[in-house]
Amino acid sequence: MTQIIKEGGKTIVKTGQRIDTLNAAQFETDIQPALEQGVDLEIDCTELNYMASSGLRIFQATMRTVVRSLGGQMKLTHVNDDIFDILKMTGFTRHIMVERV
User: Could you give all domains of the chain from N- to C-terminal order, each with its CATH number?
Assistant: First the structure.
């Protein structure tokens, strides 16, 4: 279940346990209000233990919106080792700030 929390000047999106083909569209819909609330976005991956390529696509599109279109900042926090390895292997760690657990 995705949660959106407004904290100070930033918006925090808490992911659920999985972002895959079954729930990616819902996750993308769920985070749309966060993109409208501000330009500093943190995606809290504390619960995330599986991410398919559909999750990578959403992170990429979100980064484009936040960083390139809005001139804001985006970071992923509390990323476990398995998810970090996926992000690193696909080049995301060169473009998005990633904080590991």
Answer: 3-100 (3.30.750.24)
